[in-house]
Input
Amino acid sequence: MADLAESSGVAKATISKIEREEISPTAVTLVRLAAAFDLTLAGLLVRAEGNGDRLSRAADQPLWRDPKTGYLRRQVFNNPDHPVEIVQVDLPAGREVVLPPASYAHIRQVVWVLVGDLVIVEGGERHDLGAGDCLGFGPPSEVTLANETTSTCTYLVVLSRT
Output
């Protein structure tokens, strides 16, 4: 546990509470833990939940809500034997998620806004996206995903492992 805490930057006490199901981890915490195992967030969740079929039925797609932001994540598709993952996110009004550069190691990622507006700040560069807009991410850097509006923003994340 000490090695995991050191490599992830997550406190041992927090890891222990997650293991004992005393707390629900935030998106940022899960991303840091996944990166410590050289996994994407989806890869970590798929291993924890035992999923990984080629067919991903809507009723079986895992949902997870970030307790800090209310961010709702649907794992649309993930299979350990396939290089592409698809995630749908509902980001509530007035909320943001800041993800560390480790979140983007060994992957290439595209965000496609389905409903609403999304601000992405990637490595200090701001991108304002509306419904239908799509952004391909550059080299790994800190990324902020923000909904500065009064309505929920829904977007897809499509990523491939490199």
